## 1
Amino acid sequence: MIRLIVALPAEARPLIRRFGLARAAGGEFAVWVAAEVSLVISGVGQAAAASAVARLAADGHRAETAWLNVGIGGHRSLPVGEIVLARRVTDTASGRVWRPPQVFEPPCATATVTTVDRPELEYPQETVYEMEAAGFCAAAERFARAELIQVVKVISDNVNASPERLTAARVAELIEDRIETIGLIVERTAALTGLARPSHR
């Protein structure tokens, strides 16, 4: 089973198309499913991401389940559109750190990811700033081995491109432009569970 957690509907749309997902029954969260893939739109923030993980886990989970947080983030120097796989996730509020093991060859660059409670507009460090990864990691580690929990971010803003100019259409475009690489990361993480390659359209 593959579980995808995204914050925004615009981030979800390219993934829904890629994996041929269909809307599930209504509830607190928007959930989309296929045979071996589930996606939930969590909303923004750590608490929302953690609740979304719990929502998917409540559908029944196996130890051999791949969990991925996919979304956008800002970085001081990386160009807009760059995709990275997190090698370290830090929660600025608690100081907790996660180091997702990368036991497969990443199809993209790797970077540190820092979870903040509000949008970071100054980019003081060379890290990806976003608002969900730490909550996602803290919740997902209750249900899966560390190497099956991965964080994927596409750079949406930097010192030369303000996040205040982002639109839903632009967010969807950024994810769509990197959908093949995201698909590879999903497939390589899923392979660690013994699943066959996830179907997609």
## 2
Amino acid sequence: MRIGILGGSFDPPHNGHLALARAALEHLALDEVLFVPVARNPLKRFRPSKASHRLEMVRLMIEGEPQMAVSDLEIRRGGKSYAVDSLIELNMARPADYWFLLGADALKDFASWKQPERLLHLCRIAVALRPGQELEPVLRAVPAELRSMVDLVPMPPLDISSTDLRDKLSSGKAIARWVPAQVAAYISENHLYGS
């Protein structure tokens, strides 16, 4: 079994997350992409929305995507969420070949992650570049001897982030073009982000 893990706050989840999951499924010949919302990202200062909202938005986003699933693994564990802890748990519960999926901006901080070398013994890293980014400077965050564990996932450029979407929503702007309709409806119905 070949499984991609896509972690993050998903606050809110958006079409860029879906595009990365679809590109990884195709390019890496994965059997599944598992979305794993964090309880708390140790590298970010902002307080995310309630976990129940973020989990439900991811569930709504991947409806109709048979090769995608969501896990509350990190939310159940609570506290700061670390990729290495999740991969240890996943490898014990469900042995497979794992890829940790992320954008190049997240890979830049890789050296500051908890036990990055151990993580690369548990999985490969699959990285998608944002528009205008090049892989070589991004790879410098990974120890030279481990760079062979990093795969590039080509995907169409989608310059969108959850931070931008939260800013748009708090300003009363529409976000329908960047999120699935069911996610936009959920945000509106639950008055999230000042919508």
## 3
Amino acid sequence: MKRVLILVSVLLPAGMAVFAQEAEAAVAAPPASVWKYFAAALSVGISCIAGGIAVGRIGTAAMGAMSENADLSGKALPYAGLAEGICLWGFLVALLIMIL
């Protein structure tokens, strides 16, 4: 499920950005900037939802491990930071969509 969310958060907005460039030539289509903003919003939104799910699961497991062994607190923290990186990748994709 996590892989699907990550793939959707990267591929769907990128596909919409390509569609926005193609729609610019069409007369009846809305301006390309509308699709560009929608794709950027989807990228950030879906990646933040996936990051929240990941941090929630990692936090739960880390608290359970720390309740049994307090020495594991320093080892569990980096994994939560890696899960929050999913949100940063979504923001990066959105930024690239907006710039390009």
